[in-house]
Design goal:
This protein is α+β, with helices and mostly antiparallel strands. It is 24% helix and 15% strand. The strands form 2 sheets. A 3-stranded antiparallel beta sheet has the order 1-2-3, with no helix packed on it. The chain starts with a helix and ends in a 5-residue tail after the last strand.
Length: 174
């Protein structure tokens, strides 16, 4: 499949950015025709189920949902990411042994935000693809700890005590 080969090629050719931790940032991830189809065929809100993302205060996030619909396009795409060469290419890029892959299509609604945090220790790698229609919004923000920060074991933190290193643009096809 052309889109998968393009994605794997982009991963293989990308420069690893070391700060604040090893990561890559890709633009033009998928061929334009494929990306336009992705954007056009984004599922409707009714095809998403609230995602049980717990905040430190124990409340469920009303602003994040996971796709549970039956679109052939999206089912095929997600299945291809999970079982295809993408995971292997990412693991090779970062020197990781392959493991269990979980692929999700998640929709964040206005108001969704996470404080600085690390992922669970079992998660070795995260790959985020942005599929907005227009440019300009803020994407994922990377932070480092300020001097004197002590991990309080709360999972997600307020931004005080952290320094913003970089914020990914929420650009189409990135």
């Amino acid at each position: 499949d052309v889109a998968a080969r393009c994605l794997v090629h982009q991963i293989e050719e990308a420069e690893i950015i070391q700060e604040p931790f090893p990561h890559i940032y890709l633009k033009g991830v998928f061929p334009s025709e494929f990306y336009n189809r992705m954007a056009k065929d984004l599922p409707e809100n009714k095809d998403f189920t609230p995602f049980n993302n717990l905040y430190p205060n124990g409340k469920l996030s009303p602003f994040r949902s996971i796709y549970t619909g039956k679109s052939m396009f999206w089912s095929s795409f997600l299945d291809g990411l999970e079982k295809g060469p993408t995971g292997a290419a990412l693991c090779k890029k970062f020197g990781l042994s392959e493991g269990v892959t979980t692929t999700r299509l998640i929709r964040d609604f206005p108001g969704y935000s996470l404080g600085p945090h690390t992922d669970v220790p079992a998660k070795l790698l995260s790959a985020l693809f942005y599929i907005p229609i227009a440019e300009g919004a803020a994407g994922t923000t990377f932070y480092t700890c300020s001097d004197g920060f002590t991990d309080r074991g709360e999972g997600h933190y307020e931004k005080e005590g952290f320094d913003k290193v970089w914020e990914t643009p929420f650009d189409p096809n990135s």
